[in-house]
User: Fold this.
Amino acid sequence: MTARIIDGKAIAKKLRAEYAERIVALKAKHGVVPGIAVILVGDNPASEVYVRNKISACRETGIHSELVRLPADAPEAEVLARIDALNADPAVHGILVQLPLPPHIDVPKVLERIDVSKDVDGFHLYNVGALVVGNTVFPPCTPFGVQKLLEHENVPIEGRNVVVVGASNIVGKPMALMLMKQEATVCICHKKTRNLGMFTRLADILVVAAGVPGLISADMVKEGVVVIDVGINRLPDGRLVGDVDFEDVRHKASLITPVPGGVGPMTITMLLHNTLGSAERSVAAKV
Ligand code: NAD
Assistant:
């Protein structure tokens, strides 16, 4: 068997075109343009790239974006004051604080200052709780992107064995919760898991988000598995690879995401989705 490759770039493009149409309709009918504010503290080069990509995706889709840049030594109180001002601004439907933050800033305190109705990353404790009970309006973007890929490919979830490798708060844990909501049988593995292959071989759907290049080889999966590789790793020779040995595993899987071009393009697309949804809800609340 050779796997069909899931084209995350094409799926993201299609979804973004749908969102662009909804944005035009929202403006025409209600005079509202969805708006997002991104707070960037310091000059971490990776964060600069992520923020630039997010802002250009917003621009292309018709979402108004505002970048709030603060120096690396900005006091925590200033970050909180900026969030307060954005919380009160009706033109802002989504607020995102780019992580990581400089060490003198308390991340949970900052995330919890964001108005829960503008928390487009879904990292506020309230929205994490809503995810646990299965009714969040802001699913975290990366696992939400994986869910959309599976939906687009018509992969059945209910009753399937899903193994999630990686248990972080931003990918592994929310991913597991989302798949549990869809009534999959979910197993979460992490770096202390003994005999990882024993678990991954049970998977009908395998989601890998560990940050370890080549972690998953063909002998660790069963024939016909659906493989979603969230990992993004830069090798010393400059190549970008996932956590799955793509060339090895693709001959055993039925569907597989490439890196780059799989999950990556979906993450920002889900940020657009969450911001648009927030703007639409703000209009509905006024009607
Ligand atoms: P993290 O470091 O916060 O968490 C990694 C998780 O993997 C931990 O739970 C850890 O226990 C587990 N792990 C580490 N080594 C392991 C091993 N050998 N076996 C089993 N489990 C192991 O990372 P994260 O933020 O969740 O990101 C994971 C990967 O996904 C990274 O490569 C990151 O770059 C990538 N990522 C991609 C996107 C995207 O948009 N495609 C978004 C976020 C993260």
